[in-house]
Design goal:
mainly alpha; Mitochondrial carrier fold; 10 helices; 0% strand; transmembrane helix; MCP_transmembrane; mitochondrion inner membrane
Length: 351
């Protein structure tokens, strides 16, 4: 799998480079640019990213359910020694949900999760190259293929595409979060009790219209922008470092082992930066509507959610569900780029 992408001197990133990291400093050897005719088009890249991320989320969705419930547990409640917490840690929460709600409980929100992945990662992958090209021409007067990668521009392109994808997928993230928090056994947060994705969308539209469907979108855009920028700026650097230092042991640029290590390292830093935004977006999406029907009952905007969460529960409440988040994000990243590479190989052979 060729995921050197933006690390090459003048070559456009491959699909896997777009998925994990757009350009990185310290590339050991400049590689020959890939002919423009050989690069996948926007629609193919969009389709590959969509299918790959859907395949990945099928396996990682249970950790998303666990993360969501850990983040909502004890919402705006000061911790006390006698506080009852149905979920104590990732392993125990996984066991409790699986034992009492079965596989269906662990896979709650998978349907809207698929739609969100299509909107988010399809947009991220499909429109990254055009966005990067616009930024390079605006700031350097040259195309992104004619010079070595400029990390700030790559980060900006990745962040903008991530925020655009989050905005498009916001209604599906909204329904997904509310379905994942619902439980007849150990409820946390406000319980919306949708019977299906369509039922959730219909009820949200009935109660709040377009504004209701896009409640929390600003928090989701902050989350996706922060996460995409860190992920896309660090993955290739980690991969390059590993291949330079462990290449003699088989960990070269094309090694799955290299991709695995780079993804897990990157995932940790992404979680460190993104988890506070993730907690805020989860709570913004899951809150009930205000009595007037305009906005949420608990938080008016992400900044107020940050303030109320920290002032009531303490700073480390922003890192609730961190381990579950990491266990979801690391494997999701690995599975996503592995699936992307297989789809790309299939496309080159048959399309």
């Amino acid at each position: 799998m060729d995921s050197s992408g933006g690390s090459s001197g003048g070559g456009a990133p491959t699909i896997s480079a777009v998925a994990q990291g757009f350009g990185a400093p310290g590339a050991a050897v400049a590689k020959k640019a890939e002919p423009a005719s050989a690069r996948p088009g926007i629609m193919f890249t969009w389709l590959a990213g969509s299918l790959a991320s859907c395949g990945a989320v099928t396996f990682t969705n249970p950790f998303e359910v666990v993360k969501t419930r850990l983040q909502l547990q004890g919402e705006l409640a000061k911790s006390t020694p006698n506080m009852v917490k149905p979920y104590h840690n990732v392993a125990q929460a996984f066991w409790v949900i699986g034992k009492n709600e079965g596989l269906r409980g662990l896979q709650k929100g998978l349907g809207p999760g698929y739609m969100y992945q299509i909107m988010l990662n399809g947009t991220r992958l499909g429109f990254y190259e055009p966005a990067k090209g616009i930024l390079y021409r605006a700031f350097t007067g040259q195309s992104s293929d004619s010079q070595r990668p400029i990390i700030p521009l790559n980060v900006a392109a990745g962040g903008m595409c991530g925020m655009a994808g989050a905005a498009l997928g916001s209604p599906f993230f909204l329904v997904k979060t509310r379905m994942q928090s619902a439980s007849n056994f150990a409820a946390v947060g406000f319980q919306h009790n949708y019977t299906s994705s369509l039922d959730g969308l219909r009820k949200i539209w009935r109660d709040g219209g377009v504004r209701g469907l896009y409640r929390g979108m600003d928090a989701a855009m902050m989350r996706a922008g922060a996460g995409s920028s860190v992920q896309l700026a660090t993955y290739d650097h980690c991969k390059s470092y590993i291949s330079r230092n462990l290449g003699h042991r088989g960990y070269d640029d094309n090694s799955v082992g290299t991709h695995f290590l780079a993804s897990m390292i990157t995932g940790f830093f992404v979680c460190m930066v993104m988890n506070p935004f993730d907690v805020v977006s989860t709570r913004m999406y899951n809150q009930k509507s205000s009595a007037a029907g305009h906005g949420g009952a608990l938080y008016k905007n992400p900044l107020q959610c940050f303030y109320k969460t920290v002032s009531t529960e303490g700073f480390f409440s922003l890192y609730k569900g961190f381990l579950a988040h990491y266990l979801r994000l690391g494997p999701h990243t690995i599975l996503m780029f592995v699936f992307v590479e297989q789809i790309k190989a299939f496309g080159k052979k048959y399309i």
